[in-house]
# Entry
Amino acid sequence: MRATLSCGFLGVSLDWRGKGELESSDVIKTRQVRRNDTLHSIAAEEYRDPALWRNIARANGIINPRDLQPGTVLMIPSLQP
# Structure
């Protein structure tokens, strides 16, 4: 027996102008550290690349990346082209 699959797609509007704050790696933003967050996981979510965790550490004066406390508000710097 073979499985069959059907799927449908909805259209998405790409007109983002005037729709609020940008949410991408080219704007500076802040983020509150949650339980079990690491700089690697935050960089993966924000930049789609965990290897860029040093940008976040440098921007926030973090010397020990393993000493990240829940509730801390971090500045997430924009990525420079």
Remarks:
- The longest strand covers residues 29-32.
- The domain at 29-76 is CATH 3.10.350.10 (Membrane-bound Lytic Murein Transglycosylase D; Chain A).
